[in-house]
Amino acid sequence: MDIRTRITAALKTAMKEKDAARLSTLRLISAAIKDRDIALRGDGNDAGVSDAEVLGILEKMVKQRKESARAFDEGGRIEMAEKERAEIVVIEDFLPRQLNDEEVAKAIEEAISTSGAESIRDMGKVMGALKSKFTGQIDFGAVGPRVKEKLA
């Protein structure tokens, strides 16, 4: 089952169960996907967003909420920070399992060898290989410096 179908099913379930917090987050997810669909339609792509693009949208939403929760914590708005963290939990239900450090290291080694990267100039190839295979499973902000270190 694709991600969009899983989100729609979860939305219906949240409506039936009258789970307001989960429902509002699922509606935000659905709206973000539809916004991207509309933007693609303007570019002539009527097929809509792919699962990989949906994963990217979800990752971006999680990142935004983590930053917001941190800002709310710093501002003393604990109840708002908790709301953001609750939304993160709902969004992460649709993301694949995150790789642990050993798996990330192995993925980096594999991407370097398959892309034929030899120097720091080949970092884009390595990151592209990782993104094509591990979207949603790796924090690319944290992986970038590790790839750079391997290629240096």
UniProtKB/TrEMBL annotation:
<dbReference type="InterPro" id="IPR019004">
    <property type="entry name" value="YqeY/Aim41"/>
</dbReference>
<dbReference type="GO" id="GO:0016884">
    <property type="term" value="F:carbon-nitrogen ligase activity, with glutamine as amido-N-donor"/>
</dbReference>
<protein>
    <recommendedName>
        <fullName>GatB/YqeY domain-containing protein</fullName>
    </recommendedName>
</protein>
<dbReference type="InterPro" id="IPR003789">
    <property type="entry name" value="Asn/Gln_tRNA_amidoTrase-B-like"/>
</dbReference>
<dbReference type="InterPro" id="IPR042184">
    <property type="entry name" value="YqeY/Aim41_N"/>
</dbReference>
<dbReference type="InterPro" id="IPR023168">
    <property type="entry name" value="GatB_Yqey_C_2"/>
</dbReference>
<dbReference type="Pfam" id="PF09424">
    <property type="entry name" value="YqeY"/>
</dbReference>
